[in-house]
Amino acid sequence: MNFAVLGMGAGELLVVLFILPIVLLTTVFWIWMLISAIQNKGLTDTERICWVLAIFFLHVLGALLYLVIAHGKQPPQKEGA
Fold this sequence. Notes:
Elements: H1 10-39, H2 45-58, H3 60-69
Helix pairs in contact: 1-2, 1-3, 2-3
């Protein structure tokens, strides 16, 4: 197939239509999980630091682990509330 009309080859079109959106989505997901770990009140300070470091250094893998393990952690309920 000739994509000369668009001024790009098939490889460049693959990058624009397939790879670039995946990179953008994973970057947004990574930033979302990083912010979530920083703001999660259900984690102790030590857990929060560990999760932020894991997400930062392991990138998408760290973000996926945080999502599965600790994202939904809620702060402890107060007695009588």
